[in-house]
Amino acid sequence: MKKLGMLIILAVVALGFLFPLYAGPYPLHVMTTVLTYMALGLSWDMMLRTGQLSFGTAGFFGLGSYAALLTTLYLGLNPLASIFVGGVFAAIVAFALGYAILRLREIYFAITTLALAGVFTVVARNLHDFTGGPEGKILPSAIFNGDPTKVYWLTFSVALGSILVSELFQRTRIRFAITAIRNDEITAKSSGIDIFKYLLFVFVITSAIQGVVGGAYAQQYGFVSPESAFSTNFLLLPIAMCLAGGIYSTLGPVIGSVILGVLSEYLKLRFPYGHLIIYGVIIVAIVLFMPHGILGMLKKIAQKTRTEVGGNENEK
Question: Which domain holds residue 163?
Answer without folding.
Answer: 16-233
